[in-house]
Amino acid sequence: MRSVFALSLVLVALAVFGPMLAPHDPTAINIPNRLSSPSEQWPLGTDALGRDILSRLLYGARWSLGLAFLISVIGLSIGTLVGLAAAQGGKLADWALMRTTDTFLAFPELVAAVVIAGLLGAGTGSLIFALGITSWMRYARVARGVGLSLKNRGFVIQAKLAGLSPLAIARSHYVPALVPSLIVVWTGMFARAILGISALGFLGFGVQPPMPEWGTMLLDARIHMRSTPLQMIWPGLSVAACVLAINLCGDALRDSLVDRQS
């Protein structure tokens, strides 16, 4: 768990303090130094407009990780509400909500997000909506499963007989039971959100220039992929490293929860 805690701290620090560590302005154009190789002045080189790649990576961390956190929280909130509503509602509500969930699951999340973002137009708001609205289904299934397992338990029935509202019952009984499972799902969806943001950015639907974001940096660098491949390698490695770190955190949390239950 110490390694998980350390990885989490690194990611949080990268998102919060990354821009403060940037040696240059990430949007400053410097044509005479365009496509420079790594040097003391430009530790990771410069892009086609002479902008410092290291500075853009550090600023891009706030966009990629910050937006991924927001999107995963949106998906968590929607999915938990849908799952608990299906579990606590009647058969008709359960059927309608789960068939809606199955319909969303029938479409690949990234493909659906690209279609939605394409219809709404490029921009950060469209990206958040597109990825948020396509990331809640797994939470809903988990929340429904836990909700159904608790629905007929004695303490829940007693709470109903005591006159507690469904919201109070959910807050006092359902949510504490849901937290361990949802945390594990959330870590996986957080990593998927980073990939989704980078993918939409690479397709031109994400954060718009000149603001740096890892997917947008990949898009800008693809033209010079053969002559200066490092332009694509650095943001690609950043995405891969963050996704790997988050997945490792999720695996460690899952193993920890399994050990506690056994």
**Biggest beta-sheet profile:** none
Number of domains: 1
Radius of gyration: 22 Å
Question: What is the CATH homology-level superfamily?
Answer: MetI-like
CATH topology: MetI-like fold
**What is the 3D shape?**
elongated
- Roughly what fraction of the amino acids lie in strands? under 5%
Helix content: over 70%
* N-to-C series of helices and strands: HHHHHHHHHH
Tell me the total number of β-strands.
0
**What is the averaged pLDDT score?**
85
Q: What is the number of helical segments per DSSP (H or I, 4+ residues)?
A: 10
Structural class given helices, strands, pairing?
mainly alpha
CATH architecture: Orthogonal Bundle
Question: CA-to-CA gap between the ends?
Answer: 17 Å
Stretches with pLDDT under 50, minimum 5 residues: none
The level-1 CATH class: Mainly Alpha
Please give a structural write-up.
- The structure is a single chain.
- With 262 residues, this protein is mainly α.
- The chain has a single domain, classed as MetI-like (MetI-like fold, Orthogonal Bundle).
- 73% of the residues lie in helices and 0% in strands.
- The protein has ten helices and no strands.
- α2 runs parallel beside α6 (137-151), α2 (53-88) runs antiparallel to α8 and α8 runs parallel beside α9.
- 36% of the residues are buried.
